[in-house]
């Protein structure tokens, strides 16, 4: 059996889009998010408002993304991974909407770091030097 950490992030994201295919088929806008830890996608999903209210009446939104629009969305999401540099923990959010029959996507890449892990990686004297330099400035 293949483990997630043996799959490239690109392949993992491709699997995410396959899993969300049915849900995306019913949505015309929202945000697909993937949470990444050690270059492995853990939690993922879609944030959206599937219902709209006007004049006191709640109605479902119109049609969702077609197969061609989902393919375009997936291609743009995979392309955005080329802009991820030197970080292994964080979240990527893909805000999407249909506009004039075309899917429009904005990708937001968020890197996360943990100060506790940095304290382990660097020797204590590094912090003492930084503190003395900031006091002398």
From TrEMBL:
GO terms for molecular function: methyltransferase activity. It comes from the Bacteria. This is O-methyltransferase. Keywords: Methyltransferase, Transferase. GO terms for biological process: methylation.
């Amino acid at each position: 059996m293949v483990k997630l950490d043996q799959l490239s992030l690109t392949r993992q994201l491709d699997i995410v889009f396959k899993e969300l295919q049915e849900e995306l088929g019913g949505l015309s806008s929202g945000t697909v998010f993937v949470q990444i830890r050690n270059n492995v996608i853990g939690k993922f999903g879609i944030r959206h408002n599937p219902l709209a209210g006007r004049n006191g009446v709640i109605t479902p939104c119109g049609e969702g993304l077609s197969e061609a629009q989902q393919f375009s969305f997936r291609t743009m999401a995979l392309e955005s991974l080329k802009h991820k540099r030197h970080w292994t923990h964080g979240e990527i959010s893909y805000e999407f909407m249909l506009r004039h029959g075309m899917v429009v996507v904005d990708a937001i890449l968020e890197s996360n770091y943990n100060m506790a892990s940095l304290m382990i990686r660097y020797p204590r004297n590094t912090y003492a030097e930084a503190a003395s330099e900031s006091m002398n400035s």
